[in-house]
Design brief:
By secondary structure, this protein is α/β, with parallel strands linked by helices. It is built from 10 helices and 10 strands.
């Protein structure tokens, strides 16, 4: 969907030796790698471990773009070790394989991809992926999908609190909300309005090596 924004830059990207990969049906100009064709042609048999197993767990696994707090957005190196550690994220906040996790965060950021999707894989939980967050549809989605855990970024909870009151707002199965950036006043309003949902506030950075968890509330 975003290829049209990149296409005018292709000549300069080629000069800089930057490869462009696109997931989706082509055709694409020369020099652009169509990943869907490669995926369709790939064997379902696993390659031998020595092909895909990293030599060093501290080697780069992937790059995650930061939000640009200290300047323009930039790519932060994420090691294989840090990626594997994200498997235990939901276990650390009290979730289990019985939970249904609601995720509406961008998957190109660490919160959505590594903590969210990889975290669900780590505990074997069901993940409900929402393409775009909707404050007006949120509680309907929670009830319809049997959601028990909600991963937020602080503003999402404020959007929910600012919605007009509707009947049945406390009739849901949500028991845990986990995320970053929730202001104290929104925290209190959220629990007063929507019921005794346990909130675990966390803080970490894609390029950091320390993460904080507020277990006490």
């Amino acid at each position: 969907d975003l290829f049209g924004s990149v296409e005018p830059l292709l000549p300069s990207l080629r000069e800089d030796g930057v490869a462009v990969w696109v997931l989706g049906a082509g055709p694409y100009p020369p020099g652009v790698v169509a990943l869907q064709e490669l995926l369709d042609a790939a064997s379902e048999e696993l390659e031998p471990e020595d092909v895909w197993e990293p030599e060093d767990m501290n080697d780069t696994c992937l790059y995650i773009f930061t939000s640009g707090t200290t300047g323009l957005p930039k790519a932060a190196r994420v090691s294989h070790l840090k990626s594997v550690m994200c498997l235990s994220f939901y276990e650390l906040v009290g979730a289990s394989s019985r939970d249904v996790v609601y995720l509406a965060l961008p998957l190109y950021h660490m919160a959505g991809s590594l903590l969210g999707v990889v975290g669900c894989l780590g505990i074997g939980a069901t993940c409900v992926l929402k393409e775009k967050f909707s404050a007006s549809q949120f509680w309907d989605d929670v009830r319809a999908e049997g959601v028990t855990v909600f991963q937020y970024i602080g503003e999402l909870c404020r959007y929910l609190v600012n919605q007009p009151q509707r009947p049945g707002e406390r009739q849901h199965g949500l028991r845990l909300a986990v995320g970053s950036g929730l202001r104290p006043d929104v925290w209190r309003s959220f629990q007063q309005r929507f019921g005794p949902v346990r909130i675990v506030e966390t803080y970490g950075m894609s390029e950091g090596n320390v993460t904080l968890f507020n277990y006490t509330g």
